[in-house]
Amino acid sequence: MNDTSDVVFQTRGLKRFYQMGEVTIQALRGIDLELRAGELVVMLGASGSGKSTLLNIMGGLDSASEGSVHYRDRDLTHASQRTLTEFRRHHVGFVFQFYNLISSLTARENVAIVTDISRDPMPPAEALAMVGLQARLDHFPSQLSGGEQQRVAIARAIAKRPEVLLCDEPTGALDFRTGIRVLEVLEEINRTTGTMLAIITHNEVIGEMADRVIRLRDGQVGDIHVNARRRPPSELRW
Amino acid sequence: MSMPGGGHPVSCAGDTMTIMKVGTLHLKLLRDLFRLKGQALAIAVVIASGVMTLIMSVTTLEALSGSRDRFYASHHYADLFADIKRAPLGLLERLQTLDGVSRLEPRVRAPVRLDVTGFDDPVRGVILSLPDGRQPNLNRLHLLAGSLPEAGRNDQAIVSDAFADAHGLRPGDTIQAIIDGRQTRLLLSGIARSPEIIYQAAPTDLLPDYKRYATLWMNERTLANAYGMKGAFNQLLITLQAGADVDTLIDELDLILARYGGTGTQTRHDQQSHRFLEEELAQQRAQATILPAIFLAVSAFLLNVVMARIIQTQREPLAMLKAFGYRNGELARHYGLLAVLIVLLGWVAGVLLGAWAAHGLAGIYAEYFRFPEMHFHVPPWAMALALGVAGLAALAGTWHAVGRAVREPPAEAMRPPAPQRFRRTWLERSPFGRALGNESRIVLRHLLRHPAKASLSVIGIALSAGLLLMGAYQLSAVEEMLDQQYRQVMRMDIELTFSDVTPARAAGELRHLPGVLVVESWRRVPVTLIHGHREYRTSLLGMDERPRMRQVLDPQGRPQTLPVEGVMLTRFLADHLQAGVGDTLEVAVKEGRRQHLKLPLSALVDEPIGVGAYLQRDTLNALLNEGPAISGAWLLVDSDQQAALNDALHRMPAVASIGMLSEAERGIRDYMDETILMFALVFVALAGSIAFGVTYNNARITFAERARELATLRVLGYTRAEVARILLGEIVLITLLAIPLGWLIGVGFSALLNQAFSNDLFRVPLTLPPYAFGFAAAGVVAASAIVAVLVIRRLGRLDMVTALKAVE
Questions:
Q1: Residue A85: which domain range?
Q2: Looking at beta carbons, which residues of chain B come within 8 Å of A82?
Q3: CATH no. for residue A211?
Q4: C-alpha closest to that of B532 among B595, B574, B591
């Protein structure tokens, strides 16, 4: 696992500043990190620790102010918007806290809107079956529960067979039981397809299901902990 | 595995993917369109209004001019017209050899007075000769019923269709005619239209009076016998060869015909029917240019603004699609297509409504312009132009907004916008501002925080208020014009025209007729006015020094005194001749000894209808080297004795025509009501629709932009009414700011319209009555009120929890 060819993401001295109104916020203050193929990483941190910003930059949704970020041998630091678009289009799947489904499209169509533009996607129905929603294909978001909506979002993220899956507080808006179900789905995808999975959360317990736990504090990496054994989500309690 | 038809599996898969790709995003498009249906419809209304003005105006114009051109061509309408006292038919051989002459048609033309059973008013008319028993070569008749007079019959006549309709005459009926002083009974053999009387008004009238003016056609031999024209003619019709030198030919004709009493060869432009049709077409053309230009420009601007703001409300879904890897081009196309669909919807509605309205208007025009048939088609170029303008405006708005939205990194767009920087404004620091409540403060800060956005909203509504003001102006200006003409300029009850120049003492005899209160006599002589290389054919009107029954007004509407020397011109005519007060005009008299005079232009006259040249009657008599002579008289009469007076006038052989001013006024008012005012009403309705469309979209967008904030206030315990006050406060404030600006814009639009509509026949004064301003303001306020009700209903459905939680 220490083989450098397995490194998917690499950041060096990564910094990000935001101008919020009249205040400058230092979201990231120099992050050095490597994420590897096939691993399940949980990034823990309180709100404002910079974890979402880091995820956004790795996913090509945002750009660094200073430092560098590489995906494989590709430099994302100074990539053009066009390059970042192509990167997102073919390599990354996203899952957001608030699902971000398109309310005017059904579950199947919400997945199709991504498979439409992918090179080698799985059929939307297959992706939805993987998250246990084969019976809810033609439901609109407003007809689905929160957990179901999040599973549609996961199906949408994996349907393009991405190399990495980035999840921002995927259980943040869900109750405990539903949250566990969503984590089971994510874990299974990581295990069976080898997709690198990065979950950011403020929930310490979720860290127990990871290969590695990266703790962020105030825009910097606090510590990195390697779990001897990944605990199945069904054993987690909070 | 081979595919049937030799297709490659790979390319097939590629196609399927493209179709699927189109599928989901387009499905979203349709669902978005459905979700935005209120706003989309409102925008479509704005587009439809702009498109409809163009299609309606242009289609009506083409229908009129196309029908006219076809009628002229199929019935060989003459190019030149020469009136002569009497010329022998033998002269034709020589005239035929002139360069440029194609065909000649000699005929006899005579004034006639008619009696129709059961109709007491005097009826005037003109009889034209037909070659015995057949159609003439030029100005052929379009027979609607019956047949031509049989060869050799001297008691048969064809009558113009408008007159026949007005009196319910049919072939086989008879009427009494006074031909050269003798009562004659005429049997109507047929009813016809002719290209020379598409517009059937008496030569001295502005508007047709179908009951009191007729055109008749009879066999040439009958007329020649009655009027002493055996072997002769008194009117000549001429068509030109292609490429003929018209001016040279006219000079040659005038030279030859002068010794036979020719009064000068005229072109189509001098023919009343053609002239009026030209003026009407010019008016239509002006209308078809200026109004659609204004309407389309306004709707294009609004479309641009509204599309841009709708896209701004799509910021988050847009960012999300971007996060999935959709390219900027794909997103721009997606939203561009949304704009295109809305434009198409409005365009189709505009074309259909425009064609429908044009059809209705052409029906009205058919009353006044007697074509054999009215041909209809919506010109493809107009449809393409309308689509192009609307499409480009929508795409420009969309492009700009999408461009701005996709430039933002998606992560930024998906996060709720950073709290904007608000400040206490100067307005709040003022004593007035300190008295404001929190809700008013929210409204004020919001508007001042986004001055550009607020300005665009204000301009949008102001433009629609401007359109409303322009519509109200159109409606009021016609009234104003007619009031000025019939209350201040033409103050007589009856205008008498004598068949020949008459000694002035005849006026004294008129004074003794029953019911006559005042008599004012006048002398009119046809002339061509020349200044530099500009000329204009009109007549000199000699009147009393201070005419009371036909006043000449200054710009303030005060009656002026005619100068002892020199001539006064209608301002429009002086402008046309490029002559100013003090300049010398050449005057070519077209009657009698055909003198060439030089007259100084001594003053200008402001009058709304017609153009003229005025001077003192004594001066005119002296210039013409004649004694005190008159051509007609104006009468003020006691209406109780009108019938007796009609009777007496009718029996005077010297009276060629009797014009009743009240009839003329009613006629012109009807005409204006049915044509110009009809258009104006349609435009007002369209301006109203635009006002509604703009206000509605403004309110809906404001609502969408502030839903989260308004929901928060509801969560905090604000009542629905309190929240509504904030939302409505913004709408009200924008509307109030828009009204004065709209007035300003409307005055500008009205001035443009006024400029475009001025012509020889009519000039509408640029006066805007207070009610026009009230009307424009009331229009936008009403639109805002309806919109307010609709928005408050939406506020009732605002889901607090979702609005707070959901990113979208």
A1: 4-235
A2: 327-328
A3: 3.40.50.300
A4: B574
